[in-house]
Design brief:
The protein is an alpha/beta fold. It has helices at residues 41-54, 80-94, 112-123, 138-142, 152-169, 182-187, 193-202, 220-225, 233-236, 254-264, 286-303, and strands at residues 2-9, 12-19, 28-34, 58-62, 100-110, 127-133, 174-176, 215-217, 241-246, 268-274. Helices cover 39% and strands 21% of the residues.
């Protein structure tokens, strides 16, 4: 069962779906989901939220502000700090919904949303338990040679010039998260397995959604370069932590990032390596997602 919600967020509104068990349970534990960059609530978030609901949890997935069906201008902004704040506003809403136990709220972060969920959970201790699935730290990714081949300082210089040009031209530059089609990726010589699997999820009928634009406002990138999802984790992330990573390493570095989080967090309680899976296979392939959700459900039952 899904309830469509509109969540107030200052002057904006977040479009959200609350996945609920089919029975009329009360005092439900709840999980708020933080989803991958560029995705919308009907994609990866729904795959996990619907399964968690079948395990007896209320599971809330939403479109970030400035994206999907949520409000906010300029569109396609990927602001890591506001992405974290979105989670707290979503929790505000959960605490007011009859039938949900406001004292038993957990968070689940997937891909980029994993880092955002970590960053929020450090300081929003209404979140009683945190799990990540193929979590990444967008800051370290954007400072890496893959996104800043000449170094992050040089990338910031280029972004500063680009923003000045935007102002002069009265435009807002947007860039692709991924090539728009598999053919474009192949024409560009992209052969990396993770990137191609991202393409076959986001840019084909398998996972495509009309509200996922595959565009990012370029001025987002300077915010991402200066961001660290794991800042002060050692001191502040006291809640129980579960880390689920795909067994196959790749360019997203979800394996290495998950292991680092596991090592630095004060209260790690469960680590799962999904053998044979790649990053994007953890989005929707039942042979990998179903065992992960079984483990997530057990973790939340123990700690919420």
């Amino acid at each position: 069962m899904i309830r469509h919600l509109t969540i107030p967020r200052d002057t904006l509104e977040l479009a959200a779906d609350l996945h609920l068990p089919d029975d009329d349970s009360s005092d439900l534990p709840a999980v708020v989901l933080s989803t991958p960059g560029s995705s919308v609530k009907e994609q990866i978030g729904a795959n996990y939220a619907s399964r968690l609901a079948r395990h007896g949890f209320a599971a809330l997935t939403f479109d970030p502000a400035y994206q999907g069906q949520s409000s906010g201008e300029p569109r396609d902004l990927e602001d890591p700090y506001r992405r974290g704040e979105d989670l707290s506003y979503a929790i505000d809403a959960l605490t007011t919904i009859p039938g949900i136990d406001a004292g038993r709220i957990g968070a689940l972060g997937i891909c980029a949303g994993g880092g955002y969920a970590v960053h929020t959970t450090r300081t929003d201790h209404r979140i009683k338990a945190l799990a990540t699935v193929v979590g990444t730290n967008m800051g370290s990714a954007w400072r890496s040679p893959a996104f800043a081949p000449d170094g992050p300082a040089a990338a910031l210089d280029e972004l500063a010039a680009a923003r000045t040009k935007d102002v002069a031209d009265g435009t807002l530059e947007r860039v692709n998260w991924l090539p728009d089609t598999v053919d474009e990726a192949e024409a560009a010589g992209i052969t990396d397995i993770d990137t191609m699997q991202a393409m076959t999820y986001y840019r084909t009928p398998r996972g495509h959604d009309e509200h996922s634009t595959n565009r990012r406002l370029r001025r987002s990138d300077s915010l991402l370069i200066g961001y660290d999802a794991f800042h002060l984790v050692e001191e502040l992330l006291t809640q129980p932590l579960q880390v689920i990573i795909a067994g196959r390493k790749g360019v997203t570095r979800q394996y290495e990032t998950g292991m680092r989080l596991w090592e630095i967090a004060p209260n790690p309680v469960d680590l799962m390596v999904v053998d044979g899976a790649g990053h994007y296979e953890m989005y929707d392939e039942p042979r990998y997602v179903d065992p992960a959700v079984e483990r997530l459900a057990a973790f939340y039952r123990d700690h919420l």
